[in-house]
Design a protein that fits this description.
about 130 residues, alpha+beta, disordered C terminus
Length: about 130
Amino acid sequence: MAETAKTAEPAGTAEPAGERPARREVGRLARRVRSFAADHGGSADGQVSHLGARGHRLVLVGADGAWGDLVARDRAALTEAAERAGVTLHETLEGELAARMRSGPYEWSRMAGLQIGGDDGGGGAVYRARR
């Protein structure tokens, strides 16, 4: 049986298992953050918070006051993506950052949940706000 010659890789060049998918995730997240910033005044600020078992949430606030979020399991991935996209990260979602957030009709309807014209799933009456 013939042996196959192996070429040795230089030390430190092998990628640890799982690092390539992690880099791809960071790249995907960074593209989404850049896209959000471009669509909302050219810049954005953000804040990363822990969601529990689901992971972490990056809340983005655009220069125009629009806001959105991204969720990922890894806090470091969200932080790195925000840094790559040029987003200024804040420790808390308070003060000036929170004051800049502008909620539109979509956000208000989501906050109201089933109360505005939705079906409660049980066949019962659903409260409908007056318009």
